[in-house]
């Protein structure tokens, strides 16, 4: 019986953190050896980090990566390990993975298919390796094979696909199958997006079925470089089934997933499918002989409760953003988070996420390990509980004006109290009045709500920024900007006012869904070990209607009155931005789909408003603090949705839409069906 004990590691790496990355790799290899693993897969580019951006062009990045690789080789006695790193071959840069076994480098496989869509830009730095091409590189006067190679461990053959390689039509796997490969390793850097884990599971299970092999998939973990979150998905499949998968969203440096692959049984499946043997291609023979296991895989594949509890999007959002915040705090060496807390949905969501981060972190690795990972923060040395941590790490401030209500103050204060955050309450009315009077004296007239509505709104939002920045500076905190995705789409914010901040944790999520999530977090919460982590202090905000509270209370300002219903805005954003439909196409779509919900006239006005605001506010999107990628189609102008800052404002398209709308209105009035 050829039963091989294998492992996949999810690593929390940081671009260009050579020592930190090396230590994580070595720790995970040592752990794998303790567990008698014989073949181990680590994630893509795990030595340098995946998100090195233009630092990949620096020859030093590849040079130091090789240096680190040579250090790691010493730790591979009696184990084979796949390690990702950038390499130079003939003055070109490749995204490669090295197979090391028994303290020897066997060779390098290079990625053949590079993702260059959405948030990926790999074509900018790397070359695509040509299938079946083989070359050599020299390291310290030794030559090693590089390219489309496979590895032979006394009869057990191992091949590789590197991340995107497995997602495309012309993937290497069929060619590996033709060469009789028993196991395919896939070092990956696959960023988090809602529900994407399902695609990965399917991909890995299907590959193992179609190619009759064991398939070992390792992904990165955590917020690697600022915007991208990796969920730490590691998967092992055999015989067409997933036989092991990692706990996702861990707060640890790494997680190790293990499984026993039955090589003989997979071979029987391979033997049933005809193929064209590829002869004469490069196979690197290793001197490592695997010690096969005596015991087959008996533990069934188990998922964590939250994965199957029926609230996967809510859970994924909570866990992905909390882990991203934690890593951002740690990796930016900041001492905590400061939030201007209005008691409304957005700032409450940001505050709740900070509180939840501590609770989930505590559940994941325990409070002492959590403190250890934040050991750069002297203030938390003596903290013993989540609340004591929250007091130091989360600072909130309510900044009321004469337009603020008792309800929002209560909501802010109660939420802060319920998670243990520090809460301050200041009044900024005097500051607003001073600014207004200063300008009035110069322009020689009073500013009024009738004539100067936006200006009077914006000054309130702007006056809140310096004070909250001051608190952030005092405490060496990150200032959280609270803009959500719906506001980002239409620029519904005051630049340098409520956009002030260093990170925007909710800029990737729409307001409509965010509000349902807040209710879920108050009433249901994250499922961990047979209990639920809720934030009950959200009950006050969940009873409120979103409002900017910038106009006098008698005007009863609500966001949705200013803009349009958030659910409708979200629908338009998907149609207009993701699906690139024209104003006319969007309107025709919504007038058909939403005719029971909204008045046609309103829908026309909202569609026009959406396109005008969307096209006018690209400059604002360019200036939001970095946010996190949460799905496959977001509005991040730096790495995702590109749009010209100066543009025609859809004037022509909106004129055509007007003709269509008015034409149809007249036909409707005359009783002609359409
Ligand atoms: N293409 C371009 N490139 C660069 N800059 C451009 C520009 N077009 C305009 N601008 C500049 O933009 C300025 C206007 O932008 P800005 O000052 O931000 O203000 P603006 O976008 O005119 O108004 C802010 C909007 O956000 C709403 N708001 C504000 C605050 C909070 C909330 C809330 O939900 O709580 C909502 C408020 O009700 C209002 O509708 C102009 O003075 C001009 O200088
Ligand atoms: N009274 C206030 N005290 C402190 N911060 C405030 C206050 N009013 C507004 N802000 C800041 O300005 C941001 C933008 O306001 P906005 O109204 O868009 O968000 P919100 O109040 O959190 O949520 P909602 O829009 O659902 O009411 C807030 O998230 C908050 O950071
Ligand atoms: N690093 C990669 O090649 C990632 C690409 C792949 N399609 C993914 O999202 O997982």
Write the layout of secondary structure elements.
Blueprint (H helix, E strand, L loop, with lengths): L2 E9 L6 H17 L4 E3 L17 H15 L6 E10 L2 E10 L2 E7 L11 H4 L8 E6 L2 E6 L2 E4 L2 E5 L12 H6 L4 E5 L8 H15 L3 E5 L2 E3 L5 E3 L2 E5 L2 E5 L8 E9 H10 L10 E4 L18 H4 L3 H20 L5 E4 L4 H21 L1 H7 L12 H8 E7 L5 H14 L2 E6 L1 H15 L9 H23 L2 E2 L5 H6 L20 H13 L2 E3 L2 E3 L25 H4 L3 H13 L4 H11 L6 H17 L1 H4 L29 H19 L5
Parallel strand pairs: 1-2, 2-3, 8-17, 9-10, 10-11, 18-19, 18-21, 19-20
Antiparallel strand pairs: 1-16, 3-4, 4-5, 6-7, 8-9, 11-14, 12-13, 14-15, 22-23
CATH architectural category of the largest domain: 4-Layer Sandwich
> What ions, cofactors and ligands are bound?
nicotinic acid adenine dinucleotide, adenosine-5'-triphosphate, glutamine
Q: State the assembly state of the protein chains.
A: single chain
The strands making up the biggest β-sheet line up spatially as: 15-14-11-10-9-8-17
Separate helix tally? 22
CATH topology of the largest domain: Nitrilase/N-carbamoyl-D-aminoacid amidohydrolase
Family: Belongs to the NAD synthetase family. In the C-terminal section; belongs to the NAD synthetase family.
Keywords: ATP-binding, Ligase, NAD, Nucleotide-binding
Enzyme class: ligase
GO molecular function: NAD+ synthase activity
Description:
- 39% of the residues lie in helices and 18% in strands.
- It contains 22 helices and 23 strands.
- The protein has a seven-stranded mixed β-sheet with strand order 15-14-11-10-9-8-17, covered by helices on one side. Strands 5-4-3-2-1-16 form a six-stranded mixed β-sheet.
- The chain is globular, with a radius of gyration of 28 Å.
- It binds nicotinic acid adenine dinucleotide, adenosine-5'-triphosphate (ATP) and glutamine (GLN).
- The site of nicotinic acid adenine dinucleotide has 18 residues, from helix 14 and helix 17.
- It catalyses: deamido-NAD(+) + L-glutamine + ATP + H2O = L-glutamate + AMP + diphosphate + NAD(+) + H(+).
């Amino acid at each position: 019986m050829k039963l091989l004990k294998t492992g996949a590691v999810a690593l929390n790496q940081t671009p260009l953190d050579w020592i930190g990355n090396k230590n994580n790799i070595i720790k995970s290899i040592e752990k794998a050896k303790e567990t008698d693993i014989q073949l181990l897969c680590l994630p893509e580019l795990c030595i340098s980090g995946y998100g090195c951006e233009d630092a990949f062009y620096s020859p030093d990045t590849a040079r130091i990566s090789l240096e680190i690789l040579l250090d790691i080789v010493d730790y591979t006695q009696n184990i084979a390990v796949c390690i990702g790193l950038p390499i130079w071959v003939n003055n070109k840069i490749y995204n490669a993975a090295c197979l090391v076994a028994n303290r020897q480098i066997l060779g390098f496989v290079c990625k053949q298919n590079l993702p260059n869509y959405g948030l990926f830009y790999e074509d900018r730095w790397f070359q695509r390796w040509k299938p079946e091409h083989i070359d050599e590189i020299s390291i310290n006067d030794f030559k090693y094979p590089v390219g489309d190679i496979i590895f032979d461990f006394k009869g057990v053959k191992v091949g590789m696909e590197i991340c995107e390689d497995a997602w495309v039509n012309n993937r290497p796997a069929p060619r590996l199958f033709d060469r009789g490969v028993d196991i395919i390793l896939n070092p990956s850097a696959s960023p988090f997006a809602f529900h994407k884990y399902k695609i990965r599971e399917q991909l890995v299970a299907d590959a193992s079925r179609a190619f009759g092999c064991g398939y070992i998939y390792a992904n990165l973990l955590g917020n690697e470089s600022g915007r991208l979150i990796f969920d730490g998905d590691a998967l092992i499949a055999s015989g067409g089934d997933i036989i092991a998968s990692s706990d996702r969203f861990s707060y640890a440096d790494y997680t190790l997933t293990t499984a026993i692959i039955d090589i003989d049984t997979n071979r029987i499946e391979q033997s049933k499918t005809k193929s064209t043997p590829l002869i004469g291609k490069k196979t690197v023979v290793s001197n490592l002989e695997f010690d096969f296991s005596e015991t087959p895989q008996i533990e069934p594949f188990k998922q964590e409760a939250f994965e199957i509890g029926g609230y996967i999007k809510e859970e994924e959002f909570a866990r992905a953003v909390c882990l991203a915040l934690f890593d951002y705090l740690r990796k930016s060496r900041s001492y905590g988070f400061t939030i201007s807390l209005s008691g409304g949905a957005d700032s409450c969501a940001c505050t709740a996420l900070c509180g939840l981060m501590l609770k989930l972190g505590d559940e994941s690795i325990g409070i002492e390990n959590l403190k250890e990972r934040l050991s750069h923060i002297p203030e938390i040395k003596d903290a013993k509980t989540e609340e004591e941590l929250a007091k130091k790490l989360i600072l909130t401030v309510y900044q009321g004006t004469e337009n603020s209500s008792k309800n929002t103050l209560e909501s802010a204060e109660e939420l802060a109290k319920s998670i243990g955050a520090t809460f301050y309450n200041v009044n900024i009315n005097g500051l607003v009045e001073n600014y207004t009077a200063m300008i009035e004296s110069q322009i020689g007239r009073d500013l009024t709500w009738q004539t100067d509505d936006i200006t009077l709104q914006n000054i309130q939002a702007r006056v809140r920024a310096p004070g909250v920045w001051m608190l952030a500076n005092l405490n060496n905190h990150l200032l959280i900007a609270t803009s959500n995705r719906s506001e980002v789409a239409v620029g519904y914010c005051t630049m340098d006012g409520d956009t002030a901040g260093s990170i925007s944790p909710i800029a990737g999520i729409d307001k409509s869904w965010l509000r349902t999530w807040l209710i879920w977090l108050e009433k249901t919460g994250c499922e961990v070990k047979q209990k639920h982590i809720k934030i009950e202090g959200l009950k006050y905000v969940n009873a409120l209607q979103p409002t900017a509270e910038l106009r006098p209370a008698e005007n009863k300002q609500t966001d949705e009155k200013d803009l349009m219903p958030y659910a409708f805005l979200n629908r338009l954003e998907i149609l207009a931005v993701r699906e690139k439909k024209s104003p006319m196409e969007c309107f025709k779509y919504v007038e058909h789909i939403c005719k029971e919900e909204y008045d046609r006239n309103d829908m026309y006005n909202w569609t026009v408003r959406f396109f005008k605001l969307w096209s006018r506010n690209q400059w604002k999107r360019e200036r939001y603090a970095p946010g996190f990628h949460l799905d496959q189609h977001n509005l991040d102008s730096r790495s995702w949705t590109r749009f010209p800052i100066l543009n025609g404002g859809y004037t022509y398209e909106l004129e055509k839409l007007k003709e269509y709308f008015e034409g149809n209105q007249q036909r409707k009035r005359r009783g002609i069906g359409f």
